[in-house]
């Protein structure tokens, strides 16, 4: 419930601090006195967008703060989900700075407007005469049925199931698009893959072949160089090998004379061993050299194929070509795998659809069962409000469409008088009838709804006399289970309140301000008397006001 409201520098309000009861509160005042300003300030607290026109003094910031007792409304999950401190008396504050910037706080934690609006939906339902149009809205009619049918858990389950079904559908659509794209590329990808596979590529072979090509292309020059080297090494008279042996033999004779000669001897010995190995490898290399024109032709062709493929795929190595080959192989295989995955998801989608359809059918059946109960409750209340012959007829049928709260299409038909045919509510109900119907609906919903506070903003438009008194009785009865406000011009309703607040204008210096104050008993008698007879209050009006209050 709304415990208190603090307003500073908003529209015509300089400063206002007011407390409210948890029962039935009346707000009255002349047209233009500032009742709409109060609702505007409350709208800021509930998340409505603000602008600089809201500031009375453009040089000062505007502050609107509401204190709400939320202990009985199971809102802990909201506070946890939004990382906010939970307090049984929650403080919501909006600030509009002269710069135009707006700030919002819940229990001193900054929040954005969507969070504020979400919390506001749990706290207050503001209903004005213009909102009677909601009754003509199919979604609102469904909400009424669901409240009476107690469909909240089923709708929550349906929303999860529908979300799951649509998620699978989205995955399925994406896979089918992938398959369509792959199908268009399949022939080309297969051609490229076969081209790479036929090349029989291996890692590192390009470098090996390039080296072998260089060797085979220069075999005569290599033979000549190796043969000459062997000739120089092995000449019996002046060959390197023979000379090294003689040097070794000479140094061996003096190796014991000095450590220096000994080291030289060891080094020459090592050199002789190494050169002997080199000589052996030269002989082996020369013996292994053979002309192989066929091998040379094969290497030339293979390297030319590799170079062509590298140019085609815009890469520089065989390893990169093998990576492309692997990718193409995966794409070609993916088409078959996609078919299996598409079939699996299609089956899962059918299962998810059947689950959502089953819950939607349950919701539909519960709504149908709730229709007679809802219609009877509304007509009983309307009978008290001077519409004894009012009748309602809901037409509801299951469609193939998936709506946020099920698959139902609903039409509400209404007849106000005996002998008249049913017609669509929005076409046949007058403004006064719509006001009374809306009050009856709200009265019924008060037994099912979790809203802690409801504000009726001149919902009594178009009615008067005894009917107005009955409307007041209904609002009064609603306040037994919830906090109710009524902004009204009718004394019959004003007299039913547990508390009565008056909105009025006053002049302070050169400026006009709107103010709100709680009326004492005698002040309330005079206010109701003025509502009965105008500014010139007669004794009979005062007596009538006392009678109404009693």
From TrEMBL:
Tell me yes or no: is DNA damage among this UniProt entry's keywords: yes
The task this protein performs is described as: May be involved in recombinational repair of damaged DNA.
What name appears for this protein in its UniProt entry? DNA repair protein RecN
Q: What Gene Ontology molecular function terms does this protein carry?
A: ATP binding
Question: In which domain of life is the source organism classified?
Answer: Bacteria
- So what family is this one in? Belongs to the RecN family.
Q: Gene behind this chain?
A: recN
Report keywords, A-Z. Answer: ATP-binding, Coiled coil, DNA damage, DNA repair, Nucleotide-binding
InterPro entries for the chain:
DNA_recomb/repair_RecN, P-loop_NTPase, RecF/RecN/SMC_N
Under the heading PANTHER family, the entry gives: DNA REPAIR PROTEIN RECN
Coiled coil, from the record: 165-222, 328-355
Domain (RecF/RecN/SMC N-terminal): give its ranges: 1-509
GO terms for biological process, alphabetical: DNA recombination; DNA repair; SOS response
- Pfam families in UniProt: SMC_N (PF02463)
Q: Which organism is it from?
A: Flavobacterium cyanobacteriorum
A single Gene Ontology CC annotation of this entry is: bacterial nucleoid
Q: Which segment of the chain is annotated as a signal peptide? A: none
């Amino acid at each position: 419930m709304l415990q208190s409201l603090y307003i500073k520098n908003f529209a015509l309000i300089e400063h206002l601090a007011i407390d409210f009861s948890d029962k039935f509160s009346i707000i009255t005042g002349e047209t233009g006195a500032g009742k709409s300003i109060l609702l505007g300030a409350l709208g800021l607290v509930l998340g409505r967008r603000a602008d600089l026109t809201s500031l009375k003094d453009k040089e000062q910031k505007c502050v609107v703060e509401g204190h709400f007792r939320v202990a009985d409304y199971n809102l802990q999950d909201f506070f946890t989900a939004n990382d906010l401190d939970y307090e049984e008396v929650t403080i919501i504050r909006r600030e509009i700075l002269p710069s135009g910037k707006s700030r919002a706080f819940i229990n001193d934690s900054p929040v954005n407007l969507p969070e504020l609006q979400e919390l506001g939906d749990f706290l207050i339902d503001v209903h004005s005469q213009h909102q009677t149009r909601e009754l003509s809205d199919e979604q609102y009619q469904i909400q009424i049925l669901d409240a009476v049918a107690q469909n909240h858990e089923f709708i929550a389950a349906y929303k999860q199931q529908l979300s799951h079904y649509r998620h699978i559908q989205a995955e399925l659509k994406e896979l089918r698009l992938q398959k369509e794209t792959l199908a268009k590329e399949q022939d080309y990808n297969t051609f490229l893959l076969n081209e790479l596979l036929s090349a029989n590529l291996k890692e590192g072979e390009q470098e090996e072949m390039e080296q072998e090509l260089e060797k085979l292309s220069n075999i005569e020059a290599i033979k000549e160089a190796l043969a000459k080297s062997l000739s120089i090494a092995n000449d019996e008279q002046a060959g390197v090998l023979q000379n090294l042996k003689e040097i070794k033999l000479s140094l061996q004779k003096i190796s014991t004379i000095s450590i220096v000669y000994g080291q030289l001897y060891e080094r020459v010995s090592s050199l002789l061993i190494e050169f002997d190995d080199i000589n052996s490898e030269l002989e082996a290399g020369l013996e292994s050299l053979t002309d192989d024109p066929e091998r040379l032709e094969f290497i030339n062709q293979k390297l030319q194929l590799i170079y062509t493929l590298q140019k085609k795929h815009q890469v520089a190595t065989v390893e990169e070509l093998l990576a492309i080959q692997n990718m193409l192989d995966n794409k070609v295989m993916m088409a078959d795998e996609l078919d299996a995955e598409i079939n699996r998801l299609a089956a899962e989608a059918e299962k998810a659809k059947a689950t959502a359809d089953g819950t939607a059918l349950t919701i539909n059946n519960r709504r149908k069962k709730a229709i007679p109960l809802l219609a009877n409750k509304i007509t009983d209340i309307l009978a008290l409000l001077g519409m004894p012959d009012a009748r309602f007829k809901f037409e509801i049928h299951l469609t193939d469409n998936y709506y946020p709260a099920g698959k139902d299409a609903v039409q509400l038909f209404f007849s106000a008088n005996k002998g008249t045919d049913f017609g669509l509510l929005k076409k046949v109900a007058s403004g006064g009838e719509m006001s009374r119907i809306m009050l009856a609906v709200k009265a019924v919903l008060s037994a099912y709804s979790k809203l802690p506070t409801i504000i009726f903003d001149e919902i009594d438009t178009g009615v008067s006399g005894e009917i107005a008194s009955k409307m007041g009785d209904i609002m009064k009865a609603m306040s037994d289970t919830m906090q109710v406000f009524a902004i009204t011009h009718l004394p019959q309703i004003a007299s039913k309140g547990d508390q009565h607040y008056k909105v009025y204008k006053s002049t302070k210096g050169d400026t006009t301000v709107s103010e709100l104050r709680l009326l004492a008993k005698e002040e309330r008698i005079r206010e109701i008397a003025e509502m009965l007879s105008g500014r010139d209050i007669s004794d009979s009006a005062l007596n009538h006001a006392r009678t109404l209050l009693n």
